Batch of 2 targets.
Target 1
Amino acid sequence: MAATKVLVVDDDLNIQRVLVFTLKQEGFEVHVASDGQAGVEMATAISPDLILMDVAMPKLDGYAATQQIRAAERGGARVPIIMLTAEADVEQRVRGLRAGADDDIVKPFHPLELIARIKALLSRSGGGTPAKATAEQPTMGQLYCFYGAKGGVGTTTIALNSAIAMARRFKRKTALVDANLQFGDMRVFLDQALETPSIVNAITEPDLDADLLKRLVTHHHAGIDLLLAPPNPEQADIVVERQRTDPGSLSRILSLMRRAYDYTFVDMAKTIDDFNLQLFDEADVIFVIMTADLSCLKNVRLVLETMDSLGYQRNKIQLVLNRSNAYTGINVDNAESALGRRIDFQVINEYRGAISALNSGEPFMSSRPDGPLGQSVSSFAREVDAQAGGTPAVAQPAGRR
Ligand SMILES: Nc1ncnc2c1ncn2[C@@H]1O[C@H](COP(=O)(O)OP(=O)(O)O)[C@@H](O)[C@H]1O
Ligand SMILES: [Mg+2]
């Protein structure tokens, strides 16, 4: 196995020397870039296993360089980045994490501490030395939001059951985040106790890392991991407040989830607030769930306008028409022409399948995956997996037009 490649991006010659010496002694293959711009270029050219990134540099600073490296990854394989910051200033650290860094270390640092951080990060990300060959595989790291055009259209139903399909049928590591902070249903849907940890524990944890997050998610026997909503509305306020004062706290959860799972599905509440805007921002795709009725069409138009004004690319937002074959007087063509865009996916209407699952506490994708509704949601999941670069889709699956 080839030596682990570390890219050092720092303009200070003394630091370069110390780092090269220390890293080589540890058996790493070391490459050096002397400014942010060169760092971005080398990150693409040599595909390092880890990057050490200085903050203050000529041409492009460390934040901007990190952002560019992350943008070029497009949610694919993610190189661990450690920021070398000048001071233990919380703002700087948060800025680094928001830019997409995984960890930071304050200059001057002890070489042993740096090496320990590097090794910890490499073992988390699945890279590293031959001794770490058993470390976890890199994941697909996709983050998808599910947002209902109005309440009751089936957002939770589709997020939950397609997550199970991803895990069971397509063998993807999948997590589901219940971001209905005030009134999350997942505890009830999936029969989880009130004292089960939730997103409150994750967002208030100052030293959240992959191991800790693993302990805060709940494994469900249907094959997915859950990050539950707060157990009550008061605790929901804690989450909102924490995100407001430190958006990095939410970024950190999401980036740890990306690294641990192929797919992280987020079941969102309908509000458009800071918390949800950050989720939209960080998502790779936003599935807007709708039904074919006038009030939904009106809301979808508003949502599309909002997304446009946020500058999102068209294909970041994808429309999912639920209960597509229910008679509403508005057919798919009518809906598409009213919206001026196509509907990307459809899930059929099957009242009985949906309701029996609700009452039994067992999602239909787990109890009746081959029923009509199970098949329809599976087709949706298969298409989503194919577009993310997973298994190729079967020609013309039922879920997509
Ligand atoms: N495809 C479907 N066919 C029939 N009923 C459905 C379908 N999808 C959802 N439902 C039902 O609609 C209701 C609302 O679903 P839910 O997922 O809670 O919506 P939301 O999260 O958007 O509020 C539930 O009773 C659910 O069983
Ligand atoms: Mg819901």
Target 2
Amino acid sequence: MKNFIRVFLEGIINNVKRIIFAADRVTDMDIRNRILEGRVTPTDKVAEVPCIGCGGCSNVCPTEAIYMLDLDEPVEIIEGMVKKQIPVLNSEKCITCYYCHDFCPLYALFGKAGTIHPNDVGEVELDLIELLEKPIKISDDKLVFISQYLSDSTIIKKRET
Ligand code: SF4
Ligand code: SF4
């Protein structure tokens, strides 16, 4: 009971401090200083190993923030499917629309974590061989919709005009 009261009171005090002194407020300047002083560790935006290198994220990005980098050595993912490129995300051009993640086929078609994310892709562990050999469970309409974005880099521009 004592602990409960202590935690309760600490919570009240912290909230009062926040309201009065904005003690935990983080401003753009704080973030900028942290970056300049090397106190911010950049996060990974692409999970390079499970990414299949399809280029869909690059096609779908409305600000051209993603380019496809040629791999030194192409990687055969499964028979007949070779990864030749991986995406590189330029955060300075990113508007955080999440299209790249949401249209990544590993997420959109297979329901797994996308292998690109504008903030932090995190740990993505996928058994690609097992995954790619499974049938895709998705309606034809949705498949057509997603496919056109993945395969045609001009479609967003066409829709916006
Ligand atoms: S989240 Fe950023 S990188 Fe991804 S599609 Fe949108 S603008 Fe491009
Ligand atoms: S859409 Fe997904 S799988 Fe395709 S290149 Fe981009 S991150 Fe990799």
